[in-house]
From TrEMBL:
<dbReference type="InterPro" id="IPR050061">
    <property type="entry name" value="MurCDEF_pg_biosynth"/>
</dbReference>
<keyword id="KW-1133">Transmembrane helix</keyword>
<dbReference type="InterPro" id="IPR013221">
    <property type="entry name" value="Mur_ligase_cen"/>
</dbReference>
<dbReference type="InterPro" id="IPR000713">
    <property type="entry name" value="Mur_ligase_N"/>
</dbReference>
<keyword id="KW-0131">Cell cycle</keyword>
<dbReference type="InterPro" id="IPR036565">
    <property type="entry name" value="Mur-like_cat_sf"/>
</dbReference>
<dbReference type="Pfam" id="PF01225">
    <property type="entry name" value="Mur_ligase"/>
</dbReference>
<keyword id="KW-0133">Cell shape</keyword>
<dbReference type="Pfam" id="PF08245">
    <property type="entry name" value="Mur_ligase_M"/>
</dbReference>
<keyword id="KW-0547">Nucleotide-binding</keyword>
<keyword id="KW-0573">Peptidoglycan synthesis</keyword>
<keyword id="KW-0067">ATP-binding</keyword>
<dbReference type="InterPro" id="IPR004101">
    <property type="entry name" value="Mur_ligase_C"/>
</dbReference>
<dbReference type="GO" id="GO:0008360">
    <property type="term" value="P:regulation of cell shape"/>
</dbReference>
<dbReference type="GO" id="GO:0016881">
    <property type="term" value="F:acid-amino acid ligase activity"/>
</dbReference>
<keyword id="KW-0436">Ligase</keyword>
<dbReference type="Pfam" id="PF02875">
    <property type="entry name" value="Mur_ligase_C"/>
</dbReference>
Length: 478
């Protein structure tokens, strides 16, 4: 793709797909895309970039024929555009292959992988490099993140510096390439956060997930580095045959990068890091949650090992502004705070709710969950989901998203989760869709409440509907 081409992306509103669309546009290509239904934040990003998005999928979206089609990993055989591409012999490829071929050659590939924390950690790492580049232009980072980093107001960037920072996704690549996307990225250095069972639609069990991460570890050259979480046996197992230097981070004594003296005050976290047992840094992060302290420590450790000065790391973390849909405050109305969070795995849900507890002591905490991810729609984590949601004071569940696509024997039954919470003394209820949820909870919300809305999709517009209802209530009271 040396010359300018027309490149069309099928499934362009996926977080990574929208980002690669922006990168290709920066390289001078004419980019178009299509999706079944667009929703923020990626629909907003594409509109800002003036990249045309056609809805829904249709053969007409591919006329005249583009020079190349990128097929998103959510696109399966039977999709009308994919079938047309195959019938008409239009050249096609995957997003991950384009990233490798167009953007990684000749650069330093820095990859953040793991079941949880990838997007936030990659955003932190990108901001560290961006701050450092003010004094050291050679560190100016290019990046591709699976979310909109608030410090940049975008999910991608293309610079002249050598570092290219990537969120390494373990999900499969495309209908014709069922290996993980991160196998295309060949990291020079790697952060490995957590390894847990996820993506139940493509991985049979935890062993299959671990096999994927072991293969990623096997890609790192001897001259490379791996910075890995110290608090999980699964991570340790995946590192057992690494050929490069491995540095562990976390709370465990003896770790290369050990967190000590962690304190929280509202949304601010402060801690010290020992490097090989010796004092190294005092860090502050204006974001709540022990999980975010872990993410920040991982980013700091990788950056330091790659030559980024410590003063730049400290400055960057103290001014980090999080990621869209990660503990994002959508509205504060009549003293009621509405939070949007992408959490779609029991572990992520637990850590999100714990972080909100730390930041809002004494508040009544609501968890409003849409079981939408391919893992959460299944019953494999039903008990773990109950345990995670029990962190909240009030729980509201929506119906399983497109439950007809999940075999009955595998399907999550939200009513069982509600019963499990009620048995534990946690008020919980089930509603079929967002309008019912809003009608039920809006009259009961009071000043001081924190409402965490948890979904990895659009959740039927609840992010707009609930604030609208609360504003109307305020108007009536006035």
């Amino acid at each position: 793709m040396q010359d300018s081409k027309h490149i069309h992306l099928i499934g362009i509103c996926g977080t990574a797909m929208a980002s690669i669309a922006g990168l290709l546009q920066l390289k001078g290509h004419r980019v178009t895309g299509s999706d079944q239904a667009a929703y923020p934040p990626m629909s907003d990003l594409l509109a800002h970039l003036q990249i045309p998005v056609s809805e829904p999928f249709a053969e007409a979206n591919l006329q005249p024929h583009p020079d190349l089609v990128i097929v998103g990993n959510a696109i399966s055989r039977g999709n009308v555009e994919l079938e047309y591409v195959l019938d008409q012999h239009i050249p096609f490829t995957s997003m991950a292959a384009v990233i490798h071929d167009e953007f990684l050659r000749g650069r330093e590939s820095l990859v953040v992988a793991g079941t949880h924390g990838k997007t936030t950690t990659t955003s932190m790492l990108a901001w560290i490099y961006a701050v450092a580049a003010r004094k050291h232009p050679e560190l100016a980072p290019s990046f591709l993140i699976g979310g909109v980093a608030e410090n940049f107001a975008t999910s991608f960037q293309l610079q002249d510096g050598k570092p290219f920072l990537l969120e390494g996704d373990e999900y499969d690549t495309a209908f014709f390439d069922k290996g993980p996307k991160f196998m295309h990225y060949f990291p020079d250095a790697l952060i490995l956060t957590h390894v847990e069972f996820d993506h139940a639609d493509i991985y049979k069990d935890l062993d299959a997930v671990k096999t994927a991460f072991k293969r990623l570890v096997n890609l790192v050259p001897r001259r490379g580095r791996i910075v890995a979480f110290d608090g999980a046996p699964n991570v340790t197992e995946c590192l057992s045959r690494a050929f490069c230097n491995v540095e562990r981070y976390g709370f465990e004594s003896g770790s290369m990068w050990q967190i000590v003296g962690l304190t929280h005050s509202g949304n601010q976290s402060e801690w010290k890091v020992l490097r090989a047992g010796q004092p190294w840094a005092e860090l502050m992060l204006p974001v709540a949650g022990a999980h975010n302290v872990l993410n920040a420590t991982a980013a700091a450790a990788l950056a330091a090992g790659q030559g980024v000065p410590l003063d730049c790391i400290i400055e960057a973390l103290s001014t980090f502004r999080s990621v869209k849909r990660r503990l994002e405050v959508k509205a504060v109305i009549d003293g009621i705070t509405i939070i949007d969070d992408f959490a779609h795995h029991p572990t992520a849900i637990r850590e999100t709710l714990r972080a909100l507890r730390e930041a809002n002591p004494g508040a009544r905490l609501w968890a409003v969950l849409e079981p939408r991810s391919n893992t959460l729609r299944r019953n494999v984590f039903e008990q773990e989901l109950i345990d995670s949601l029990a962190t909240a004071d009030e729980v509201v569940l929506a119906g399983v998203f497109k439950m007809e696509n999940i075999p009955e024997a595998e399907r999550l039954h939200p009513e069982s989760v509600v019963r499990g919470l009620n048995v534990r003394g946690i008020p919980a209820e089930l509603h079929t869709h967002a309008d019912e949820i809003v009608a039920s909870i809006a009259p009961r919300l009071r000043s001081g409440d924190v409402v965490a809305i948890l979904s990895n999709g659009g959740f039927d517009g609840i992010y707009e509907k609930l604030p609208q209802q609360l504003r109307a209530r305020v108007t009536v009271k006035a």
